[in-house]
Amino acid sequence: xxxxxxxxxxxxxxxxxxxxxxxxxxxxxxxxxxxxxxxxxxxxxxxxxxxxxxxxxxxxxxxxxxxxxxxxxxxxxxxxxxxxxxxxxxxxxxxxxxxxxxxxxxxxxxxxxxxxxxxxxxxxxxxxxxxxxxxxxxxxxxxxxxxxxxxxxxxxxxxxxxxxxxxxxxxx
Length: 172
Hints:
The chain is α+β, with helices and mostly antiparallel strands. Helix content is about 30%, strand content about 25%.
């Protein structure tokens, strides 16, 4: 099927003028990876975040490096970076992207939260918000894994896109 025919089938799926077409579903209901070859390659970035809620004592253990499993933040940073690079293996319809940068940072709140923020950058014709979200999610899961022995009631919340730049849907 030609690119034009595929685009027509995808666009025709919209119910009305105000409902955007589902670009990952063809008219016959089959899912597919969206063809982005017609899009312009630009610098694209995304920031995502997550929050691990725990106790003040656990945050103090994280800060001091005193957790039984070891250094939580360094481990979670590496896990987040690796996760961003593995996004298309984890999320079936994501494009494999050459990533120019992946950053994972943490802010500890003495009241008992670990805020995680990720930043991902590329220069391709599609966005990197899924990579940023995957990095934030896996970093949060890693923090949770590192602290669960001392706080089995810890939670992960607020996984979200904070900012998306580049392409036509540039937003923050």
